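Example 479, ligand adenosine-5'-diphosphate.
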Amino acid sequence: MISQVQSRSIFSRLFTYFTVFTVVIMICLWLFQILFLQTFYQQMKIRELYSVADTIQDGYGKESLFATISNLTLRSDMYIQIVIGNTVLYTSTVQNPADRMNMFANSYDYDTLKRKVLKAEDHTVVTQQTMNRTRDEDVMIYASLLDESSESDSTYLFIYTPLTAVGTTIEILAKLLVLVTILAIGIGVIMSLIISRRLSRPLHRLTESAVRLGQGNFDVHFDGSGYAETEELAATLNYAEYEISKSDRLQKDIVANVSHDLKTPLTMVKSYAEMIRDLSGDVPEKRNKHLQVIISEADRLNDLVNDLTSLSKMQANVDTLDVETVDLASLAGESADSFSVHAEQDGFTFEVVTEGNTEVPADPGKIRQVFANLIGNAVRYSSTEEDSDRTVLIRVTEQPETVRCEVIDHGQGIPAGDLDQIWDRYYRSSSNHSRTSSGTGLGLAIVKQILLLHQAAYGVESIEQEGSTFWFELKKENE
Ligand code: ADP
């Protein structure tokens, strides 16, 4: 069952974000361009007036003053006058028709302005005035005292600058902004549509594949091409799909293998029991032979059930370790000794080589099982032919931080392609599909679980027809 989607689509989200973004930008534009434009403009003019006045004040008394002033007038739309008492010492004429200058100058009451300058704390006055004598035109006037002698012949600096009427500009801007707002929202819709389509396409593809996977189709391939993130998601899903299909295959294999493994010995037990009943019951020699078969088949069943139980316990993490200080060299020796029956019967020799201090904290019972499984395999997968090398070398060596144990055989080896899988339950290398007499297919899975519980590194190196080296390294110090 796929749960009902509650969240909003990528499109509606993107569209909301775009709209909010557009609205915020537009509000800012409206505020700055329309509401504050006038104030900005005035502030700017005042700053300009002050900076021009500063330059003139700096140049006052120097020869270059007039050149500086005409230069300033050229650069900015300002009309400058320097007045001593009632005499105009300088008035800018460059570029400015004299009548305009006069219009500014005459329209203001000089004396009032002069008085204001004198009264002002810093002897500076900036004021705005509408020149309504001829036509409405706003002028910003800056007046300051350049040189204070007596009241009648102090030197004053007057700077006039016309203020452009921003009203019309604001009207034009307002109309333009309406257009821009509509355009921006339109573009927002189109962008949201395009982006959401592009974003959702790989997601839809992934969802479709996931639905098919959910229906049990393990052949699906997740394709997230388009974006790094979706590609990463697709790669993860493909990996998950691979793992799920692997465990599904394993599950099926386990059921098939367990039932096969149970059936074979049971059939044997049943048929040998029938043989004893019908044929050999009275012939002690035959009967004992048949009974021996029943006993070893029962043993095999027992092994299988034990292996299954301990593996599932360990995998479910209910099995804990009884850790104590263990000498791996003596464990290896004991394990090799218990295989000595093989040594005598089938010509196997077990060599144990140890080096350094081989004591580690570990669960002795479980590590013994690891050795037993590895040595058992070394025996099982070595040829018993006359001229074959049947030496199994068990090497236990001290490393800087670990103790390394190796079980080396010269048997049939493992194909390179199988090396990763042999640690899985019931995996049998491609060169070994026959059921050997005592293998349960769980040996290495148990070894792996035990070593994982010990947080030990493990691995295998193998060359086909030359032999295999199974190794593990237990840490000297418990973490
Ligand atoms: P099995 O009961 O089949 O031995 P294991 O889990 O112990 O199960 O081993 C899994 C498979 O790994 C074996 O079937 C075999 O193909 C391969 N294998 C394990 N040990 C060796 C070895 N020493 N030499 C060659 N093949 C090995």
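Summary: DSSP finds twelve helices and twelve strands in the chain.
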